[in-house]
Amino acid sequence: MSLLNFGQPDQSIIQTAYVVKDIRGAIAQWIEHLRVGPWFLLERFCVEASYRSKPANTDVAIAMSFAGHMMIELIQPNDNAPSVYREVIDQRGYGFHHWGVGSKDFDRDVETYRKRGAELALLLRVPTGGRVAYMDTTAQLPGMVELIELGADLEPIFTGFYRATLGWDGKDPVRPFA
């Protein structure tokens, strides 16, 4: 294992994620109560995906920041379409959703989770070219595991978010996701 540029070891948890009803309200709560910020917000993340082995469209707002070396992700569904997010909201409400695990060998890691009994709940390609896979580990763990394919384009984005949090003075609390 080696450290990623934002301080977390690869092949380990690099992110904790929460589904929220109101992403801007949730950002305000994280800033006010936990002093986490700034946040990088993408109000519409729309991509084609495979949800429970069927074609689907994912439409969510996402915001990311860091608390120390741990990335925090907030996710707000923009519609009521079936999704891994809607499943959790319907089952137990808003709150913790998944851990993000960095993966340098994505296909191997997906198969490892499958062999452990986890179903591939969502598979999609992100605009940077990498892939993410949500493995339904809820029979074994209190949330899903999102495998995040680490590549040349994704790590610098996360590292930029991390660096913005170092010594953050409270200015520009919500910034564009870039």
Question: Mind explaining what this structure looks like?
Answer:
- The chain has 178 residues and is α/β, with parallel strands linked by helices.
- It has helices at residues 23-34, 84-92, 106-115, 154-165; strands at 13-19, 39-51, 54-67, 70-77, 95-103, 119-125, 131-136, 144-149, 174-176.
- It has an eight-stranded mixed beta barrel, surrounded by four helices.
- The radius of gyration is 15 Å and the shape is globular.
Features:
9 strands, alpha/beta, 4 helices, single chain, 2,3-Dihydroxybiphenyl 1,2-Dioxygenase, domain 1, 8-stranded mixed beta barrel, 178 residues, globular
Overview in brief:
The protein has 178 residues and is of the alpha/beta class.
CATH architecture classification name: Roll
CA-based gyration radius: 15 Å
Q: How many strand segments?
A: 9
Instruction: Give the overall form.
Output: globular
Order of helices and strands: EHEEEHEHEEEHE
Fraction of helical residues: 10-25%
Write the layout of secondary structure elements.
Layout: E1 13-19, H1 23-34, E2 39-51, E3 54-67, E4 70-77, H2 84-92, E5 95-103, H3 106-115, E6 119-125, E7 131-136, E8 144-149, H4 154-165, E9 174-176
Parallel strand pairs: 1-4, 2-9, 5-8
Antiparallel strand pairs: 1-5, 2-3, 2-6, 3-4, 6-7, 7-8
